[in-house]
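User: What would this chain look like folded?
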Amino acid sequence: MKLEILRAAVHLFTAEGYEHVSMRKIAAHIDYSATAIYSYFANKEEILVELLRHCYGEFLRCLQAAVKECREQGIEQRLRAALHGYIQFGLRQPQYYQLIFIDNLDQLQHVALPDNDRYEGFRLLEELVREAMEAGVLQRQDVRLVSQSLWASLHGTTSLLITFPGFGWDTGDFSRFQVEAMLRGL
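Assistant: Here's the prediction, encoded as structure tokens.
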């Protein structure tokens, strides 16, 4: 039941905007009474916090799984896998991606998630960048700045692929090209 409520909420929050969704609307979307969902969540904000935690967790697991697949390979392959993992998360979970990276609903005043798995995903990227610099795969520069630059490029790529699907992208070729361009540039 909780998962159904969260699925309805992600759909409605991304389609209509958080501020336009009520508990009653979420309940109607899954054909439940409003009182039924109140037994799982006290209010819309509680649903949002649970949903964001879930989305952040999925994001981090996607990055970790991509890196784990290459654990026996060198740092360049693990870094490349993490970059592809970021894009793949957005393509496989576009509504989750929109909630956590485009709508930035965790920035609402009543949502307190200062340290979450989205930040852990960034820390994972920073660690991979640090290792790549130490191994001579990337030029030695400011680790945080390079990580932020990669993150920004990944976000731009992923956002474009999600928000303009009819543009004629070959998502696989475009993603590979972008990742290789990022790495060659560094």
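DSSP finds nine helices and no strands in the chain. If you want, I can go into more detail on any region.
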